[in-house]
Amino acid sequence: MSKTKIATNLFFLLGLIILGFMLYKTGIGVIWNNIKLTNWWFAAIIGIWAVVYFLNAIAFHTIIRDGSPEARSVGFLRTLKLTISGYAINLITPFGLMGGEPYKIIELQPALGIQKATSTVLLYMMMHFVSHFIFWMVSIPLLFIIVPNVAVSVRIILAIAGIASLLLLWWSFTVYSKGFVSKALSIAGKLPFAGKKVKTYKQKHLEKIEQMDFLIANLYKNRKKDFVTSLSLELLSRFVLCTEIIFMMHAIRFPVTFTQSVIVESIQSMVGNLFFFMPMQLGAREGGFILVFGILSFPAAHAVYVSLCIRIRELFWTLFGLGLIQVRRR
Question: Fewer beta carbons within 10 angstroms: which end of the chain, N or C?
């Protein structure tokens, strides 16, 4: 059995174990009651994420297809599979990106080679982050416009979050123009204990590291159209997924506007990402929903309902994504 297949099977087994734990913690009875309450709206809630993942996959595929012969060997359906299963692994592993990104690199390595597979996955990961930063910067002013009497403490926190997003956006474009693998290893080389090994690794693989940085910078410098297309699709997916909040609130006859749904999704994702190290952001996401529902003067009980709906949707797509891991390419 190849190393790639062993690693893939390990990701699959780890995912099933953690998913079983999540089902146990949520409770089958709670899940079933929520499904009955939401009824056929769950078809729309789950279905909208098929659209979101499709947009994510096109954004990822745009980065992969750089015109080289090896890139042409990666079909779109394979990219779609890696996108859904990669997000499924990220959702259930501690520290989020510690699972899905290595899995995608392992899967792409036979076709693209280790340097291009790594740089491509890192580029898409950065694109995903940048779309978040832009999304937050757009939604924070929206909140101030539609809720003018927001508490001063909340205003200060959101203003800080907006400034932080702007600084992170600036840093991201610095990374796009220069690459960051070499610089990251230089910083890691100054750490105690592991620093010496990192320096040795960098010296030994300097040519490969420089190649990865070149590939990262190449998208922004020489493939501007692909860069803009990929980022636009990622940002569009942020706004498309906001419609699930509208569907959930319609199911309990408490309609909300699209602007309100954008604010709800933005604030809860901001809070959730602060606790990225927790599998499925357990507890953090619920707290984010209660916070933003309070700001919008929505009933707190509805926040609990929405968070449970999202847990059920996540369980569905996680199970589906883990199943895709076992679908072998021809």
Answer: C
For the chain, the maximum distance between any two Cα atoms, rounded to a whole number of angstroms, is: 62
Other beta carbons within 10 angstroms of residue 23's beta carbon come to 14
DSSP H helices in 75-151 = 76-92, 97-112, 114-146
Residue that the structure tokens 């910083």 belong to: 187
**Per-residue CA distances from 23 to 17, 94, 100, 124 (Å):** 10, 17, 20, 30
Residue 127 tokens, joined: 């694109």
- Tell me if 38 sits within 8 A of 316, measured CB to CB: no
The verdict on pTM exceeding 0.90 is: no
- Rounded Cα gap, residues 35 and 313, in angstroms: 10
Q: How far apart are the C-alpha atoms of 83 and 121, rounded to whole Å? A: 10
End-to-end CA distance of the chain: 17
Mind listing the pLDDT tens digit for each residue in 104-140? 888 888 888 888 888 888 889 888 888 888 888 888 8
At 135-180, the pLDDT tens digits run 888 888 888 888 777 777 777 877 887 888 888 888 877 777 776 6
